[in-house]
Each structure stands twice: as structure tokens, then as C-alpha cells.
Amino acid sequence: MRLHAVKTKVVSIGDDLVKIILASLNEQGLQLEDNDVLAVTSKVVAIAEERLVKLSSVKPSDRAKRIAKKFSLQPELAELILYEAGEIYGGVEKAVLTLKNKVLTANAGIDNKNAPKDYVVLWPGNPKKSAERIREEIRRKTGAKIAVLVVDSGLVPLRKGTVGLALAVAGFKPVKDCRGELDIYGKLLAITQHAIADDLASAAHLLMSEAAEKTPVVLVKDAPVEFDDGAYDSAEMMMPFKECIFTSTFLGDADDSKKAQDLRSSKL
Fold first, then answer.
1. Are 18 and 138 in contact, with CB atoms under 8 Å apart?
2. In terms of CATH, what superfamily is 1-50+125-237?
3. Residues 140-150: tens digit of each pLDDT
4. How far is Cα 83 from Cα 105, in angstroms, rounded to an integer?
């Protein structure tokens, strides 16, 4: 597998993202071919789709003010988290643990990093549709049948730092079910599933990095994935609450929907 970091100009509100990507690939002498995977940060997808909010335009509620005080956040950001999150569970200084689009993530995916002053960037409104649209537009303009991976930063419990997280995939299967296969000693795998999309997202995330690198795209060649014509979002990559070692441990045996409510802090 070969990965190529693709630097672009700063993507602005309403820009033609596919046009920018194709121009950047051309400038760097990179050519798209069938079965390439194009990893794109959710940030530039969202900015191109005008998914930005000016914080000074947000009026925080009393509840948002309480959350902001508890976790050292701007009240306006706390209000946006309340609006965007499906569930709020707790948090630490500067970060609230939320459930957004079936993903456990900080601050409902809202980020002020690499956003214009006084603005924050939300997740794309529908990452799966965004991935499909980019894939089809590139195929129409280049003839190449590629796959698209929308990537954000994610967290792993008790590990420092961010890793890549797949928000959506178009063109390959995001999870490989290894249950029923044999290991090198002939033992049957009982629970193992391989998060292919997240692994690929982490490889791309290493090149994209987190600061001012201006590398929102990574071209992946010879990726060991199973290509198809499907599109998948986070819900289709989600481990059910009762089967997840983390949520099942902390939430007990309650029904999934009740678990989420029980975990929500009554003080928020």
C-alpha cells in the first residue's frame, strides 16, 4: 500500500472541493486510477458545504452556560454541542463526551481548529452522501472508479492523542468480519471484526496531521480493501452498545436506549 499526501490551497466556504482536489493532484503529478482510495478530511468537506457557525451569532441557554462553566468551554460552543449531540455523557476540561451520528466523540464533532476566527466547523450534514457525491463527481470528470473515505480525528479510551476515524465510506466495505476464520494455530475466531475503514483513516490521518500542514487529502494506492459500489456511514460501522466492551462495562445490562439516558449526567 502506498500513501501520497496531497497539499491543497486553503479551502473556503462554498469552494468546489472536487475541483481543488483534482487540481492539487495534477500539480503534484499524481494520477487517479481505478481502485484508488481518496481520503478526505471531514473539515474541508464541511467547509465546502458551508457547515460553519459564527460563535458570536449563538445565544447560549442557561443549560449551555452550566456546561460551559463545568468544562471550561465558551458558552456559545456549549450551546452548539447541545444542538448537535444526540447524547451528552460528561467530559473533562475543554471536551464533552457526546454521541453524534452513532459515534462517541468530543464536542459532537465541532471544532474551532483550522476555522476562521470566531467560527467553528461542524461535521458534514450527511457524510455518506458527501462521500458518494465526491466519488461520482470524480468518476464523471476523470473516468476513474475510486473509493472515497471521509476522515476525522478520533480518540481511544486511555490513550493519549488522536487517531483517524472513518465517518463515511463510498466504494469499499468498511468492516471485515473475521468471525469463523482460523488463526495460525487453527483456532476459530469468535468475536474478531477488522475495522478496515478506521485503519485506513488512521494511516491517512498520520499524513494529514493536526495543525497547519494544509494536507486535507491523502491518495491511497493498492489498499487492501474489498471494493464495492456501496456507501456506508457511522451507523453501519457502529458496535451496538450491549456488544461494546466499553459501553457494556459501564452501562450494565439495560436496554440500549435507556443506557444512553442513564449515562447522561443529571447535573448537565
1. yes
2. CofE-like (3.30.1330.100)
3. 999 999 999 99
4. 15
